Amino acid sequence: MSERPGEWVVIDLGTAHGSVADDRAPTSRQRRRSRRRRLAVAAVALLLVCGGAATASPPFRATAAVPVEPGSSVSVAGDLLVIADPAPPPAPAGGGAGGAATDPGLAELRGYDLPTGTERWRLRLPAAMSRSATRVGDLVLLASRDSIRRQTGTTAVDARTGAVRWSRADAVLTAPGVAVGLAVQEVRSASGAGRRISGRVEAIDLATGRPLWHEQVPLTAVAHVVAGDPPLAVLVLDSGRTEVHDLATGALRGVGTLPPADYAPDNPRVTEHGLVLRHPDTRPGRRSALSAYDLDDVVLRWSRPDRAREVQWADCAGDLCGRTPDGIWTLDLDNGGQVFATGDGLPWLPVRGSADDLVFRLLPDERIAVADSGTSTTPRAIGTLPVGSRDCRVGETALVCRGGNGRQLAIFTLPRT
């Protein structure tokens, strides 16, 4: 892995984000806008002090630090930092009780409070090549992966105590604020984790792990869980057949056929308002197209030429936008209208785990600028991280990054209003 933050992707927290909804829980869009407002107000205050320049933004200062091994898996799940050792922790020098209790088939996981860095719990689970953690209400879903990046199991633990609630031998897809998940079997692939699924697809109650309904996928497919009223499960088979199910009941709400495409977790991009697919354009003189479909009946809404060669999908305050080397464009999902803004030539990369609210980029002096992204190509500065910061993750209240030596995690408290 490169030591230069501009050359790596900030943490992958897996496919699940958010929390289980209660009777008065905010929607995913309300949560995004609430965080955006919080960051925007903080950013405006900083801009008044710093003149609005990212390079002049005040530095983040670490409020706590946690030791970590270079090969450990690190995740931020809401207000919890989870560290998983890929092998049993080393025995104390000279042996002793700690060494005697070591089991080579188990790995140790530690949960720390954010932003204080205080240890909450320790837990031992079967050893895995890597793990990631995702917060769902009062639970944390711990996902394990094997040597070729296939998810091999999911364990739900109590976020406060670390007590195991339930465990499954497959992957679980979730969406913010949705109390039901979709358990899937990932296809073994070296091209990317979770790129395809096959076999049995099963909806489960996330609080208990109890199955609700299931379906057998006859081909490989891409699956999505979509927040909304009601929440939906969207299955896109490699044949193009697309099924939209009520996530809680399994009832089929819509079915249709999409054109041939390179189907992947980010293609089509699915929102609660519809889906947008990048696919080859069969019209003369055109290379590719963007086409939008209703989720109710999978009927084509609009189609337009796609001229971007490289694009990163992003969720910009509930709208769909794409970041390219040349700038950012935003799509109107109702009619396909496209608004393009030219960038300044220095790419901003999304901080994973922030729902695209935070972005970062490497400055000429090797510091890392962090900003509230919005839909602008000139994001609003929040602060800068020290030289050597890397492998960063963001949660509800804190940003966590490895230091230059890889053996310590620095915890930076996000601005509050």
UniProtKB/TrEMBL annotation:
InterPro entries: PQQ_rpt_dom, Quinoprotein_ADH-like_sf, WD40/YVTN_repeat-like_dom_sf. SUPFAM superfamilies: Quinoprotein alcohol dehydrogenase-like. Gene3D superfamilies: YVTN repeat-like/Quinoprotein amine dehydrogenase. The keyword Transmembrane applies. Keywords: Membrane, Transmembrane, Transmembrane helix. The chain crosses the membrane at residues 39-60. This is Outer membrane protein assembly factor BamB, contains PQQ-like beta-propeller repeat. It comes from Asanoa ishikariensis. The lineage of its organism: Bacteria, Bacillati, Actinomycetota, Actinomycetes, Micromonosporales.
